[in-house]
Amino acid sequence: MVKVGLLAKIVAKAGKEDEVAGFLAGALELAQAEGKTVTWYAFRVSPTEFGVFDTFEGDDGRQAHLAGPIAAALMANADRLLAEPPSIRPIDVLARK
After folding, report:
1. What is the pLDDT of residue 40?
2. Which of 4, 15, 20, 86 gets the most CB atoms within 10 Å of its CB?
3. pLDDT below 70 — which residues of the chain?
4. What does DSSP say about strands 4-11 and 87-92: parallel, antiparallel, or unpaired?
5. What is the CATH number of the domain that holds 80?
6. Could you give phi then psi for residue 61, rounded to 5 degrees?
7. Structural domain boundaries enclosing 83
8. Would 97 be classed as within a structural domain?
9. Is there a domain that residue 64 lies in?
């Protein structure tokens, strides 16, 4: 049962919006390979603002994701692609369908 998740806000630098969108779309394959990631969504809120929402059965899955290849790649490219550090917030899932 899904109990926890992460909600990330990602803001692209001017001129890097398409590259950020491509990075997030390309991360789907990595998310699919994560055995403890139950759901993973990458989305766009505005021309420069993006987000990621993912869920896990427990905190061990959440921590594994934070230590995994998607987070590592995002942080390795943050200075080049992002206008500000990503905001990554842990959440508790209260209900789901």
Report:
1. 98
2. 20
3. none
4. antiparallel
5. 3.30.70.100
6. -65, -40
7. 4-92
8. no
9. yes
